[in-house]
Design a protein that fits this description.
heterodimer, A: 355 residues, alpha/beta, Rossmann fold, eight-stranded mixed beta sheet, two-stranded antiparallel sheet, 40% helix, globular, B: 145 residues, mainly alpha, 4 helices, 0% strand
Chain lengths: 355, 145
Amino acid sequence: MAEAQVTADPFTEAANRLKTLNKVMTSRATIAQSPKEPIWTLNKAKLYRYIPVLPKEKRHPVPLLLVFALMNRPYILDLRPGHSFVEYMVNKGYDLYLLDWGAPGPEDKNLKFDDYTLEYMPRAIRKLKAISGSEEFSLLGWCIGAILTTIYAALRGDDGLRNLILLTAPLDFSNKQGLTFARWVDERYFDIDKVLAAFGNMPGEMLDYGAKALKPVENYVGNYVKLWDNLDDPRMVEAWHAMNTWVTDNVPLAGGAFRQLIVDLYRNDKLMRGELIIRGQRVDLSRIHANLLTVIAEGDHITPSCQSEPIMSKVSSKDRELFRIAGGHIGIMAGSGAAKYTWPHIDGWLAPRSK
Amino acid sequence: MGDEPTQNGKRFDPMEPWRGVRDIYMDAWAKTMVDMVNSEAYAQASGAMLDTYLTVSTPFREAIEKAMLKTLEQLAMPSRADVVSIAERMTNIEMRLDDMDAKLDNVLRLIAPPGASPRMEAARAPQKKKAAKTQQAKSAKRGKK
C-alpha cells in the first residue's frame, strides 16, 4: 500500500507521458461501438439500424434517421460508450437508423446533391419504413447532412416525414462578410474547375485543412498543447484520442456535390433564394411542413448562426423551435456538455412528437 | 522536493507560471491568426498558392497518367477508366436490385395476413427462412450420422 503512494521519479513520469503521447498520436481509438446491423446498401452508402435495447412496447413508434455530413465519418454520433448520442437515443427508446454515405471513389465524382437527396435518401427511407413498419419517420441532419435533409424535406414533404431536426445547418449564404469560407471560395480566388479537373473529388485532406485553417492556432497548436497538459488524466486522454481518431479520418467530397456547395450555395445562395434546382424541381422551402427543430451552436465558427436562423421564417411548419446552445460546431453533439444539454433537449422535443 | 503537497493539497508545479504566460501568448496569437485568415488578402494569397500548385503539377500529373495508361495497356491490365466504368455499372445494377427489393416488399406486404406487423415481418422473412433452412440441414445431418 505504502509503495503505491510513492510518486514516480521525474524520468519515469516523463517516460510514461511520452508513451501515452506516442500511443494516442499513432493509433486509432476504438469508436462506434453501439451494436448495429446494415439493412441496406447502395454504392458506398449504407443504412444501419441500431439494435434496440428496449422492448417494442416501450419504444417510440416513429423511427429516427440520422444523416451526417458527406465529408466526415458519421461515427461522431457514436464516438465511445458513455459519450454517444446514438447510445443515448437508443436507451431513450428510439428506433434509430444511420445513413452512412461512405467515401466516394473516382467513379463517384459526378455525384450531386440531386443523387443524394432523390436517389439515395428515398431508397434508404423506403427500406427504413419496411423494416420499422412505420409510414412516418423523423430526420436529423447535421452540417451538410442538414442541407440534404432540408432539400429532401422540401422535395418529398409527402413521404411521411413528421419531424425534422437540423443541427448547425449551413443553409443561408447571403452574409458573405460573415462567412470566411465564402471569402476563400470567391470566384476571383478559387478556380473550382481547375481543382476538380485535378482531383475529381475534393480531397478529404484539403477539406480538413479548410476547416482547421479557420482557427489555425487552436487546431494546429492548442489542440496538442491541451493534450500535453492533460496527459496524466486518463479520461481526458481517452476523449482526446477518440476525437482525434474522428478528426483525422477524412473523407473526400464527391466533385459534383462540392461544385454545388461552392457555386450554388456559397456563391449564389440559391437554396434560400428559392432558386436551387434539383433534378428539374425547384427547392421551395415553404413546402416543408414537418415539425422543425433547428439547433444552433453559439460558438460555431464553421456554420455561424446567421446561416441557420433564416430557415425558421421560410418553412410552413406550424410547430417549429429554434434552440441555441453554447458550444462549437462539433462540441454541441460530441463535447462534454452534449449529454447534459443538447441530447436531452433533442429527446425532450422529439419524444412527444414520436408517438 | 517537488512531490511535497502544498497547503491546498496540490503539488507545487514549477511550470505553472510558464503555462499561464504561454496561454496568454497563445490566445493573442490565435486572435491574430483568426483575423488574418478572415482577411481578403489571405483569401487571395491562398487562392494564388493553390492555383500555382495546380498549374505546375498538372503537366506532370497528365504525363504520369499517360505513361500509366500506356503501361497498363502493354500489360493488358484495366485502366482507371475501365474500373470506374465497371463501378458505375455495378451501381446501376444495385439500383435495379433495389427496385426489385422494393417491389418484393410491396408484394409481401399485400399478401401478409391482417394484424401482422406486415413490413417488419416481410423484411425479416428471408432471414427467418434462411435460419429455418440451416436448422433443417443441421437436423438432417444429425439424422444421417
